[in-house]
Amino acid sequence: MSHAQHHAKQHGDDEHAGHDKHAGHDPAAFRRKFWLSLALTVPIVATSHMVMDWFGYELDFPGIGLVGPVLGTVVFGYGGWPFLQGAVREIRDRAPGMMLLIAMAISVAYVASLATSLGAFDLDFWWELAALVTIMLLGHWQEMKAIGQAQGALSALAALLPDDAERLDPEGQPQRVAVTELGVGDVVLVRPGSRVPADGTVVDGRAELDESMITGESRPVSRATGDRVVAGTVATDAALRVRIEAVGDDTALAGIQRLVSEAQQSSGRAQVLADRFAAWLFYIATATAVLTLVVWSLLGDVDEAVVRTVTVLVIACPHALGLAIPLVIALSTAVAAKAGILVKDRLALERMRTIDTVLFDKTGTLTRGEHVVTDVAAASGTTESDVLAIAAAVEADSEHPLARAIVAAAEQGDQRVATGFHSLTGRGVRAEVDGVTYAVGGPALLRELDVTVPEDLDEHRRDWSHRGAAVLYLLRLNDGDATVLGALALADQIRPEARQAIADLRGQGIRKIAMITGDARPVAEAVAADLGFRSGEDEVFAEVLPAEKDDTVTELQRRGLRVAMVGDGVNDAPALARANVGIAIGAGTDVAIESAGVVLASSDPRGVSGVIRLSRAAYRKMLQNLVWAAGYNVIALPLAAGVLAWAGVALSPAVAAVLMSASTIVVALNAQLLRRVALRPPEAT
Length: 685
Fold this sequence. Notes:
By secondary structure, this protein is an alpha+beta fold. It is built from 25 helices and 22 strands. A seven-stranded mixed β-sheet has the order 10-22-21-20-11-18-19, sandwiched between helices. The protein is elongated. It starts with a helix and ends in a 13-residue tail after the last helix.
């Protein structure tokens, strides 16, 4: 077993124990008990005189009278043991529930069967007892199997880690080692088609990485020298050399596992309601069973009193109720994790359905948080392509983010080579291209050189500045004279998905979309207009300091709005914590964000609408399951007690067990429909 598989198994065992605290068994144990109990139940049923009368056959052999008592006792002791254990735990914890009801039902049935064998009653009850225990085992096995499948998200995440890796020795030769042997600082070779074994930084190579298993993003993303990569992602087309920066429990993948595990084990308001209802049901069922026993005994039919009492206890077992909420919780968090939505706080997910205002932090959320060249303008006698090509050559050796943006914009065009690069601190850069000296800089460089910008370029500058773009100029230097050849506008690029994210939220009935930023108001208003904000409905908070974002959330809440704050989880932490729901976005390599209730592993703001869809769908499923479980008992309990026995309508304990298990299956199938919820909208075009 690999390290990852062991880690997943440990999580899975803990969760099963957490869910089925009463039984203390895994699904495999219930499966074995079910099949053995079924094998023993068949001869018990076949030798029952009642069954023989029903089907018109006859069996008779020496010792036939012992088949029921002997095999029935084995079924009760072996198959019923998990329920008896669970009942003891519930009594010890003073939390009566499903296990205690089941234990009472099979115990009363066993005592009645034993008394019948000793001549105290005239009941053919052994087959009912065996069938009851067997059906209960089947229902419990299927319940735990369903929970296990939902929690399989953890195993799937753990399976993303390879068992071994190719670590480079001091000579740069790859050596295959176990992933557990990797340490921080090691350099590993990731071949095409292989998975990254641990979090790290690319030190050599460029490749398209499939990160869908971590972020939910369907398209591969390019990763090159200096970029962070995450354990479990796949290099699709080329090899990379990666320096390891985090291993084991410190990796993003391990963090995601912890979030999924904690969310699946957490309880929300619906779970508290279900637990309370289960406790009420125990007392109601117990009172109904006692009343049934007394009434039927007073009517002079002690045999029927026992049968009715057992049936009441069986039909009231809150199996469906016990599955209604945990399965929805497990499925919703597993479905979300697969789409790159990590639920840290169940209450946050529940509250998301009531949100009427979504407040986005602009930089890094609605925009990429990095500048790109948006416009190029050339002075008379120069072309825009020349301006971009020369500016890129001059900036080629600069590490400034704006310089990198210019170089990136010119990659597909004419390539020039510069020499004699020189940085002009705080003003710009200078270099020679084809023997001519050029400089690239902003207003400070223009002032130093006392250069006047041509009127046509200045018009562009005013328009670009109004839209919030930074403006750089390309100048030709000649013996102390400087001439402006062109200008470039660089702006924080709006994410192509952002417009669709806003539209999706409107389609879901969100009352107000708001944006908060430290940018000047004209810049913020320009971005909002580009995103499709509606005047009079939506709101823009501009020139807000990071420390004031928390106050903005408070202001919106004072107006009676229920606010979801969407930010990058760094300087937005106080606002994320203050909001009704905090959503951290773009956290694929940093899942340990304490301030957010929900984490979007990708940088796609459309995931916010996915969280709302999931919240509403999960809430519907919880309510439907609770209504079904409650309604089922309202009808079934009186029938089990025999209120319609005068009309020939009566349930046997075995039939009650079948109906109870059927209600569990209905609840499980209804919860499985959560898998059909579309959390990721179509790709933006």
